[in-house]
Design goal:
The complex is a heterodimer. By secondary structure, chain A is mainly alpha-helical. Chain A is 66% helix and 0% strand. Chain B has a two-stranded antiparallel sheet with strand order 1-2. The longest helix of chain B has 29 residues. The chains are: A mainly alpha, B mainly alpha.
Chain lengths: 325, 322
């Protein structure tokens, strides 16, 4: 056995990798209070929920995400602000500092910044979440087929994946956005369709591994169909990786949308997303209009940190070694 | 070793072929398909008859495979990346000036990343679960969550308009090697690009060294009485080098993506800015040409990384020969 592999093999070996993973050693030790003592059998999923609930930061992350989502979708109804018509008559102040009427001031077009954060957040969160879902579905199906069918199909699918991975993602996104469209629906599809390569690799690695394990072979020997083995053995055993990597995909999708927005290729006016807002705000940063960029930047970064942290906590919850038997 | 290199070369050529087919086929799915350039040349209200004539003149109605073959010959043999009908220039004519500028930027950042991230990762693994380790890990965590453009803006705000007054933009319109003759202007862009990839690579390095440190030969080395320094740098480092070479190769796409953002924020005329401009003006041949070129660079980078891996680790090339 070699411990080192070439470019293609390396990622197959990786357990769902996040550069944000906590210290390795901490993950192998069960947190205190998780065990019910010897002899008490509790269902696995409940143990997983318990390990997740034990992680205070993860709970805080979930609460934060729920609050931000509620704010984005409810605030425009609680406190409606005009986010469509630019104020050409200058009846509304533009670049105005925070006041009672505009809690976070107004931007260079006279839009209320707090209302606009909610307005843009609707798009950023929706596109990010749905693109993440698309990523998970495509990556899982592709990886399962490749890993489980094996042989020539696997080789061909993996070479296609290599080709896709060798195109820098941002350039690929920009190409697709240029050739096709910039509507929200299309951005969801684009970010989803370009984000699944890593997921597919990891799922394929899992499928390859599980297919060779004893219980899969025993099922085959007992006459189980391939579909049955995929459904009952491969899928349940790789669900942890699928969910964990999927969570990181959502964070990545939100980041990619914001990057496209920053380059002026995101959600187009009259709608907006957080990246586009940050781009607009950054033009004003040198003028000292801090309210146009820093509050949104803080909310945005914390959203990404929270999603990544939830992914880490999910990985811990799925880690078999943490579960008391 | 020779067989190994040949095998990797053939693999890369197959992948290159798939990328070529992809960039060639994509325009077929555009609105107006491959006749879209006709509406650029003849105007958006061109009559269908004129568009048809244009298509005939430019061989747009030739069979798919014939056109594909022409395309591949043009790219591989004549280094022709396509023609921008919007700018009435060949794509290579538009970007040839910018290619070395971006490559220098990315290469400098790559070398700096290696020099900084590798010792940092080793040090973190050695001092794991200490304040230093947590600080470095936490910083990487935050750096990874900040969108790169926002990080650039914060860096710009802090070091160009705040604490120090470094130039906010590198010299443009000069020789591509200005990075060596006039380095002051490059401190911020190269520094930011390096910071972005260090955050990623140092984590890999830490994980890899941690994996190596539990191996039997490390225990043997310690039992023989090797000093900690010798264990780290003579044993652990050499064995962790393989994965790191691979990761550096794999990080090239991210590096080009990062360079795109850096160029946009710091206003450095390179491939990235040219891509964004072309995308803004819906100049799809230019965007496709640049994407193809960057993909070729990535393939080359991965190929070099894998060959280096064969040099570093004899087991790989022996495995390849069997």
């Amino acid at each position: 056995m070699t411990t080192e592999k070439t470019t293609q093999d390396l990622e197959d070996r990786e357990v769902p990798h996040s550069p944000l993973a906590g210290p390795l050693d901490a993950r192998t030790v069960a947190p205190e209070g998780v065990s019910d003592g010897p002899g008490v059998v509790i269902p696995m999923w409940r143990q997983r929920v318990r390990i997740f609930m034990h992680n205070k930061l993860a709970i805080a992350s979930v609460v934060y995400l729920v609050l931000v989502t509620l704010f984005c979708f409810l605030w425009p109804h609680i406190h409606p602000t005009n986010q469509t018509n630019q104020n050409l008559a200058l009846t509304q102040p533009f670049n105005a500092p925070p006041s009672a009427q505009h809690p976070l001031g107004t931007d260079s077009n006279g839009f209320d910044v707090l209302g606009r954060i909610a307005f843009g957040g609707e798009y950023s969160l929706t596109v990010g979440f749905l693109a993440g879902v698309v990523t998970i579905i495509i990556g899982t199906v592709y990886g399962m087929v490749s890993g489980f069918v094996g042989g020539i199909v696997d080789t061909v699918l993996m070479r296609i994946l290599d080709a896709a991975l060798s195109i820098p993602l941002l350039f690929l996104l920009i190409t697709l956005v240029t050739l096709f469209s910039r509507s929200a629906t299309f951005l969801i599809l684009l970010i989803g369709l370009t984000g699944w390569f890593g997921n597919a690799r990891i799922v394929r690695g899992d499928a390859l591994l599980i297919r060779r394990l004893e219980y899969s072979q025993a099922a085959t020997a007992m006459g189980a169909s391939k579909w049955h083995i995929i459904r009952r053995h491969v899928f349940p055993n790789s669900i942890s990786n699928i969910v964990t990597v999927g969570t990181f995909s959502v964070a990545d999708a939100i980041l990619f949308l914001s990057t496209l927005g920053f380059l002026g290729l995101g959600i187009q006016p009259p709608n907006t997303d957080w990246g586009t807002m940050l781009q607009n705000g950054s033009d004003q940063i040198a003028n000292g209009y801090w309210w146009e960029i820093y509050p949104l930047a803080a909310i945005f970064i914390l959203v990404v940190v929270a999603i990544n942290y939830i992914g880490d906590a999910l990985r811990d919850a799925f880690e078999v070694r943490l579960i008391e038997r | 070793m020779f067989a190994y290199v040949v095998r990797r070369l053939v693999q890369s050529l197959i992948v290159l072929f798939i990328v070529l087919v992809f960039t060639f086929t994509l325009p077929y799915f555009e609105p107006h398909g491959i006749l879209a350039p006709a509406y650029v040349v003849l105007g958006t209200r061109a009559s269908p008859a004129n568009v048809h004539t244009w298509g005939v003149q430019h061989g747009m109605y030739h069979p798919y495979l014939v056109r594909l073959w022409d395309y591949i010959v043009q790219v591989v043999w004549h280094h022709n990346l396509g023609f921008s009908y919007k700018q009435n220039l060949s794509v290579w004519g538009i970007i040839s000036l910018y290619v070395p500028r971006t490559v220098w930027l990315a290469l400098t950042a790559l070398v700096l990343t290696f020099v900084i991230a590798v010792p940092l990762g080793i040090f973190q693994a050695n001092k794991r679960n200490t304040v230093f380790d947590y600080t470095a890990t936490g910083s990487a965590f935050i750096l990874y969550a900040i969108p790169s453009f926002l990080l650039c803006l914060l860096v710009l705000q802090a070091f160009s308009f705040g604490i120090t007054h470094l130039p906010a933009s590198p010299p443009s319109g000069v020789a591509p090697w200005a990075i060596f003759t006039d380095p002051v202007g490059f401190i911020l862009p190269v520094g930011t690009l390096t910071l972005l990839s260090v955050a990623l690579i140092s984590r890999f390095m830490r994980g890899t060294v941690l994996e190596v440190l539990v191996q039997d030969y490390i225990r043997t080395a310690r039992a023989k009485g090797c000093s900690n320094r010798r264990v780290l740098f003579a044993h652990a480092f050499r064995n962790a080098l393989g994965p790191i070479v691979t990761i550096l190769g794999l990080s090239i796409p991210a590096l080009f993506g990062g360079a795109l953002i850096i160029e946009s924020v710091f206003n450095y005329a390179g491939l990235g800015i040219e891509t964004v401009n072309a995308a803004t003006y819906l100049d799809s041949p230019t965007v496709l040409g640049i994407t193809l070129l960057v993909s070729i660079f990535t393939l080359l980078g991965n190929l070099i990384a894998d060959i280096l891996l064969g040099v570093v680790n004899p087991r790989i090339r022996i495995q390849g020969e069997q």
